[in-house]
């Protein structure tokens, strides 16, 4: 991978960190020639070697750039129109509309319950073309977030983004292609996200697959597919998402430090005391309890919680919270109801429900196991997402959303 795209990501992320106020961010667009503009800020490029630039090397860029940025804003009273970085190019700084009227959620959404939580945030949802991912994206958009739908099925993601834009306003949703199990694909997607938005606030690792079957008959290929998508991909996504979020945190801290160093205590005190971003894994109730003839899936989800707890301990120093949400029984989504590969069909064919003769029999069997008598909805899971983002004093948790079927202990 060439240096320029990776450095573009680093610069865009750092610049966004300078302007972040906990609810909105400047949009950063990479441009080739610097156009005429009233306010141009010139920044030096960091000193790096000939190798490809990892995002963490851009730390050398944060301190001097932050001081230059704050001095510019103090002098002009506004953000620069264009930021140039020697040897890299220029970035146009935009000011997206984050007013309350930008997104209008319908009465069926949960946005009104926590009206300020998602307003102006940038949220990334993998597996966002359909199912849980799309249901979550819809709820976040209703709450005022800008959502990025990431999916291997780019046609489906594009269509879903267009639908969200038609309902919640142009610019609400965008589609990005990625194979979450392929590191190069994920890295390119993160680059594209940062070039488009300048960074993000919330990364939801939702993409997943399921292949049910007995340990005595499940193929190694199916087992590996489930492990790659549900377990390894969470590592890959967290690796690249956290590199961006770490830079945003560094930029924010540099901004506070520059304000204090310049004697501008009023500005420093006006900034939020907590700069927190979030990485969430959409796990499963199968990550909390073993699943008969579904070992590949349950194992991948158990492993995911281990990653969540480990990543939470490592990334907390950068203001990154890492948590898991463990929903159960989203019966109306494609994971369960797809006529060819859904869980109802797979469980029926695998004989997992004794005596079941039809998909309807399998569904009734699972509904009866839920104390609340129904499957969960996208709104149920979105409430957990809102809680996790709101709660700045919790990380490394696995939160069940199962209607009482699985409980924390």
Kindly describe this structure:
The chain has a domain of 246 residues: Rossmann fold (3-Layer(aba) Sandwich). By secondary structure, the chain is an alpha/beta fold. The strands form 2 sheets. Strands 7-6-5-8-9-10-11 form a 7-stranded parallel β-sheet, sandwiched between helices. A 4-stranded mixed β-sheet has the order 1-4-3-2. 44% of the residues lie in helices and 14% in strands. α3 links the parallel β5 and β6. α1 packs across α6 and α10 crosses α11.
End-to-end gap:
45 Å
* Broad CATH class of the domain at 109-328 and 376-401: Alpha Beta
Average residue-wise pLDDT: 81
Low-confidence stretches: 18-25, 48-57, 96-107
Strand content: 5-15%
Question: In a few lines, what is going on in this structure?
Answer:
The chain is of the alpha/beta class and 409 residues long. It contains twelve helices and eleven strands.
